[in-house]
Amino acid sequence: MKRWLAFAPIPAAALWLLAVVNSCSTLPRTVVAPPAIPGATYAGNAACFDCHTNYVRAFAASAHARIPHDDAMIGLGGCESCHGPGSLHIAAGGGRGKFIVNPGKDATACFQCHLATHAEFKLPQHHPVAEGRVNCVHCHDPHGSDIFKTAGGPAMARLNENCAACHREQTRPFVFEHEALREGCTICHNPHGSINRKLLVENDANLCLKCHAQVQGLAVAAGRLLIGKVDHTDWLKQGGCWSAGCHAAVHGSNVDPRMRF
User: End-to-end alpha-carbon separation of the chain, Å?
Assistant: First the structure.
C-alpha cells in the first residue's frame, strides 16, 4: 500500500498538467494589432478606394485579404491592418508616407505576422532587409492575388524572374542549363536567410546528391560512390561538388555540358 501511495502523486500531477495545457489551448489566439499612428482612427477600405482604386480592387483576391476580421478592431482584415489607421492620412489629402505606415520602406509591419521569416533574416547569411537595403515588396506583391512580384507564367518562372531582377548573371540563359533552375532558385537557396554561405539550404554535396543520385551496384557495396558511370568518391572527399573546383558553373555553362566552367 505504501509503495502505491508513493507513486500516486505522479499520475495526479500528469492529469493536472494535461488540464492546464488543455485550458490554455482553448484560449483565443492573440490578435496582432495593426500599426499604431497617434491621433488617427480607422476609416475602412472604402475610404481608400478613391485614391488607391487599383490596389483596393486587387486586394480582394490577395492572400492578405483573408486576415480574420474582428469587428472590435476595424483595422484588421483591410488596408489598415498593414498601413495603420488612415484618418489623418485622408485629412491631409494623402501623400506618400504621410501619416501612414509604408511597409515598402519598413518591413516592421510585415514582421508582425511573418514571425518565422523575421527569424530567418537574423541568420548569419540573409538578404539585407533588416539593414534597409532591400524590402519585402521588392520580391512580393502584398496587394495582388499573386504573391510573387512578376505576374504571368508558371509559379517557378515568376519566382526565378524575381531573383533575376538582381541576380542577372546567375539567371541568364545558358547553352547548357542546370535543370534545377526549372524547379526554382529556392530548390538550392533559402531567399530569406540561411546558416550556409550563398543562402544555400545545405552546404555540402548532399544538396547535389538529392537530384544526382548515386548508382546502386557492386561499387556502392565496396564503399565507392558512382554518379552516372563516374567514380566520385575521392573527389567528394575534397569538398562539395562546386567547392572542390569541379562543377563551378552551378547555374549553367555556355561551353561545358557538365558545368565545370
Answer: 79
Distance CA 129, CA 103 (A): 12
Q: Name the strand (E) or helix (H) holding 83.
A: helix 80-83
pTM, to two decimals: 0.76
**Among 59, 40, 56, CA closest to 48:** 56
Digitized pLDDT (tens) for each residue of the chain, 261 residues in all = 444 444 444 444 444 444 433 433 333 344 567 788 999 998 888 889 889 999 888 888 888 887 765 444 444 567 888 898 999 999 999 988 889 999 888 899 899 889 999 999 999 999 999 898 999 999 998 888 888 776 566 667 777 888 998 999 999 999 999 999 888 899 999 999 999 999 999 988 889 988 887 777 766 667 788 887 888 888 888 877 887 678 999 999 999 999 998
- Judge whether 127 and 120 are in contact, CB under 8 Å: no
> What burial class does residue 160 get, using C-beta atoms within 10 Å of its C-beta: 0-12 exposed, 13-18 middle, 19+ buried?
buried
Q: Which residue has the cell 505576374?
A: 151
What 3-state DSSP class applies to 216? coil
Backbone angles phi, psi at 200, to 5 degrees: -70, 145
From residue 152, give the alpha-carbon distance in Å to each of 54, 58, 138, 145, 179.
Answer: 18, 15, 17, 11, 21
b/e burial code for range 214-243 (CB count within 10 A of at least 16 → b): eeeeeeeeeeebbbeeeebeebbeeebbbe
Under 8 Å CB-to-CB from 110, ≥6 apart: which residues? 82, 103, 117, 136, 142
